[in-house]
Amino acid sequence: MKKVNKRSGKRGLPPGSLVHVGEPASERSSILVFRYNAERYEELRPADLKGLGAAPPENMVLWLDIDGLTSDELLMQAGDLFGLHPLLLEDVLNTDHRPKVEEYQNELFVVMKMLSLDAETGSIRSEQICFVLRPGMVISFQERPGDILEPIRERIRKDLGRVRRSGADYLLYTLLDVIVDHYFVVVEDLGQRIEQLERKVLVRPGNEDLATIQELRSMLIMVNRYVTPTRELAGRLNTIQSPLIEKATRRYITDLQDHAVYIAETIGTFRELLSSLENAYHAGQNMRMGQVMKFLTIISTIFIPLTFLVGVYGMNFKHMPELEWHYGYFAVWGLMILVALIMLQWFRRKRWL
């Protein structure tokens, strides 16, 4: 989980320069095009954008999905074809942006973060995805191929839900909604890990639990870093005065905002729970240390008089009557055992044991 992407490579360059910021992509860019309405749909995988028009077909919605940010030429081609602002294209290549929405002339630009779980390591992977909403058209730019948007594609192919009977603004909402739904998946997985850790810490805390607490806290901070601006993004989409978003779609965006608020509150609850677990861990460790010190103190206290007796009868003075007794050795042992038993009984009465 990389926390900081360097932007220093852009120093000295003019605004709008196409410089990729983020982890280098290893796969080639690909293009997927959907054209649809209530009656039919088309799915295309062109090699480039030369065959596409700048406007969607009449009475159809166009979804242009570009996967992989490895080709500056493809981005420039998209910019020239659709007249995209240079600063917009610059933001597409800068994969370290926080979620946001910006209004350009006759279009909206939305930046989101897709989160997913690595099945092998359990870590959280993040990927930036950018959307451009225009009349009858949505353009999406993804960092790398492979995403969580396949359910939306299946809805278009099989005519499920109301996507095929709605406009481009509703398509944008469904894409944002499936991204936020995966925030629930990530947060619920973290919640299960915290519950398991809580049971372990409260029963018998181990030295590795503190590292686990710090790791989970770091993951929650990362998720919250994207959830909080997503809540602001949904609020902005709901209040922005743009003819691109219909009134009926704003109701769904309100629900999207509610989901983001709920996730943010859940993250806050989990962070407080982790703080409580950390306090419980330290309290448990201190209690164990106190018990060890208590045990060692009692042992030391018992041996103080025993050491005194052994020291007295370990002296080599000639005139010590007890040294001549036939049963002196056994008498001293009996005395030491009796002293130890009396002290143990006294400790129990004082409830020190």
Molecular structure report:
- The protein has helices spanning 72-82, 86-93, 150-158, 168-203, 209-239, 247-313, 328-349; strands spanning 30-36, 41-44, 61-67, 100-104, 107-117, 124-134, 137-142.
- It has 7 helices and 7 strands; from the N terminus they run βββααββββααααα.
- Helix 4 (168-203) packs antiparallel against helix 5 (209-239) and helix 6 runs antiparallel to helix 7.
- It has a 7-stranded mixed beta sheet.
- It folds into 2 domains: 15-283, 2-Layer Sandwich (Beta Polymerase, domain 2), CATH 3.30.460; 288-349, Methane Monooxygenase Hydroxylase, Chain G, domain 1 (Up-down Bundle), CATH 1.20.58.
- The chain is an alpha+beta fold.
- The longest helix has 67 residues, at 247-313.
- The two termini are 49 Å apart.
